[in-house]
Structures are given as C-alpha cells and as structure tokens.
Amino acid sequence: MWIDTHCHLDAAEFDADRDAVASAAQAAGVSRIVIPAVARENFSTVRALAHGTEGAVYALGIHPLYTPHARDDDLDVLRHEIEASLDDPCFVGIGEIGLDYFVPGLDEARQQRFYDAQLRLAREFGLPAICHVRKSQDQVLKGLRRNGVTSGIAHAFNGSFQQARAFIDQGMHLGFGGNLTFERALQIRRLAQQLPLEAIVMETDAPDIPPAWLYRERNTPDQVPRIGTVLAGLRGLSPEELALGTTANAAVALPRLALSSA
User: Fold this and answer.
1) What is the structure's pLDDT at 9?
2) What's a Pfam family this protein contains (predicted)?
3) Integer Cα distance of 117 and 71 in angstroms
4) Which of 58, 204, 212, 218 has its CA 20 to 30 A from that of 11?
C-alpha cells in the first residue's frame, strides 16, 4: 500500500479523466491520496472530491502563490471551514500553505502574513501543516518554530541536509516525489538516500513534478509505486519495505488519516 501525500487532483489538467486517474492510482496500489486546497475558491471543491473519490482525503489552506489575489477575510472563511470540517473523517490538516521565493514579483510580507495566520490556526486546532518550501526552507522553518507547529509535511523538499535535519527536529516529515528519479538531481537523491526512513513520505504533486519517464508530461498519482521503487533502490530496500515504512510515516505526519480509514 502506498500513500500520495500531495496530489492536486482537483486541477484542470484532470477535468477530462479525473475518475480514471483516481481508479488507476487505486489499481496501482495507491490506497490514499491527499488533496490540498490552494485558495478559498477551491475549499468546497477539494472537500467534495475527497468525499467522492475512494481513498481520498483533503486539507484546507491558502497557497503562497495565491496570496496576491486572496482577501483578508479569506482567513476568516478558512477558520470557519476548519471548524466545520473537524468532524469530517476526510479532513486531515492545513495546507497547502507556506512561502515561495522562487516566483518573481510576489509580496514577501503578504505571503508571510498569510503563512503565519494559517500556522496559528494549525496550532489552535492541533492540526498538521502541509508546507510549500520552494527556495524558502529557512523562513518556513522559522514560522513553524515561532508559531509552535510541530507536525506536518515539508512538501517537495529540496533543501540541504542541515535544513532537513532541522525540519525533522521540529517534528515535520519530508515529501519526496518525481524529482528524485532524475539522475542529475544529485542533492535530492542524496537526501532521499541518507535521511532517516522515518522522516520520508511519498508524494507526486500531480499534475506537476513528473518523474523522469514522464518528463514534461502530466504527472498522475499512480506513479507513486514506480517513484518509490527508484527510492527503494537508492536506499537498498525492497519496494515493499519502502511502501510499508512511508505509509506508516504518512500516518504519523497526518494523524487524521486514521479517521478516514476507520
């Protein structure tokens, strides 16, 4: 059994064949798919999709790339949606939130304000945070420390070994996906090989971050087992051992996964 801890199954790229994509993931052994929200406008979409898709769950949050068009009262809406979702077994946490220092032109102060506000919600409600950390690992980590958030996932992690250790010490798990399948991605491959297995969860970020064999094509959640096989080979494990370990790790990172499987 595999878990895709980060998949934007609601994305427009899946409009033509979403059900088939989800079914293919189940057939490939991906029993759970975590669908994070990115903006107020898709809170209800990811919730409905999780309820209508076998094995799917959802998180609620405002992505840093969506902060330019987010309104201040979106945070009030998010609070209301969290409160309304606490009894929902398909709801697993706050995400996708974080900071992005890669895309030019984003207001860093505005990103930070939305990030901190959402971290405070995560702490208040005792929920894990699914964090976007592109070129922003240190500042994302500072936010976690400052706001007392000690569980969740650093999605698509691509920092240094020292930064990885700091996230792990904070209680976070690190998400690895298609990037590690590229032989030239030396840093990510070293991290995936050398970090404690207990710190690693699998993800696709589908439809983005496709593995090497789908370069510049649409990524899909059914790719998790093949990506996992590459990672298992790097670590000298069988795919079955890696699937067992990373699935257990996902349950630690996102404890409410147990509710949706009960």
Assistant:
1) 98
2) TatD_DNase
3) 13
4) 212
